[in-house]
């Protein structure tokens, strides 16, 4: 009887989890800073500064920043990375996509929101109220993003979620320009209140209409602001 040859167990395949996680962390942090308005159109993002901040090499930082470039959030220059300047045509196209996607997505999310998400929507709205009372545009931007992320988390289609996030984040230039204006802040707050009430009442038609109006108002206020700027 021939004795079988003992098999040598294979070493487990090791993956670069630490680097992958770090790259994702840096990506999410830089994107969050842009959402909050911490990074403005005149700011430069430098890979070595972020590497120093995270105590890492420049490689995971470069990977995160290149991903943001590929997704349209940043533009690479010879002196670092910057937020792209949107033309009026760019803004029209972004809002066209938002009008096509967000009202339907928000209406669909209405029926599946949980009590926990309802509470989170209320908290985000109250933050927006306090921001308007203080005429704090940066805080209102943050509350607006928080409110959006809550209802968007209830959207069942993950690809739709990601697409909406990308296009609303591309409109950061719009929020930065308009939400510093007290009259625009009041319009945005009224829109959030209408959305909140529609979500809480599980009224998908009301939410659809409110979301469309919210987007139309944002686009209109942007171009009013642009026309009011000095040439």
UniProtKB/TrEMBL annotation:
GO molecular function: DNA binding; DNA-binding transcription factor activity
Keyword Transcription regulation included in the entry's annotation: yes
Pfam family of the protein (one): GntR
Record keywords, A-Z: DNA-binding, Transcription, Transcription regulation
Xref: InterPro entries: GntR_C, TF_FadR/GntR_C, Tscrpt_reg_HTH_GntR, WH-like_DNA-bd_sf, WH_DNA-bd_sf
Residue span, HTH gntR-type domain: 20-86
Domain of life (superkingdom): Bacteria
Protein name: HTH gntR-type domain-containing protein
Native organism: Paraburkholderia caffeinitolerans
């Amino acid at each position: 009887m021939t004795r079988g040859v003992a098999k040598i167990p294979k070493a487990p395949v090791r993956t670069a989890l630490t680097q992958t996680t770090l790259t994702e962390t840096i990506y999410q942090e830089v994107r969050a800073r842009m959402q909050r308005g911490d990074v403005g159109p005149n700011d430069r993002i430098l890979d070595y500064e972020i590497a120093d901040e995270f105590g890492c090499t420049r490689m995971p930082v470069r990977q995160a920043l290149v991903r943001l470039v590929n997704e349209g959030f940043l533009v690479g220059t010879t002196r670092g990375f910057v937020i792209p300047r949107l033309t009026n045509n760019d803004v029209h196209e972004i809002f066209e996509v938002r009008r096509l996607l967000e009202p339907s997505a928000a209406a669909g999310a209405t029926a599946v929101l949980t009590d926990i998400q309802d509470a989170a929507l209320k908290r985000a709205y109250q933050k927006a109220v306090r921001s308007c009372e203080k005429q704090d545009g940066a805080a209102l931007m943050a509350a607006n993003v928080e409110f959006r992320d809550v209802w968007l988390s209830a959207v069942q289609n993950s690809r739709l979620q990601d697409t909406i996030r990308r296009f609303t984040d591309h409109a950061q230039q719009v929020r930065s320009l308009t939400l510093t204006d007290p009259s625009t802040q009041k319009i945005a707050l009224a829109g959030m209140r209408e959305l909140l009430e529609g979500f809480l009442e599980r009224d998908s038609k009301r939410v659809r209409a409110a979301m469309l109006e919210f987007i139309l108002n944002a686009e209109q206020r942007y171009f009013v602001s642009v026309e009011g700027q000095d040439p």
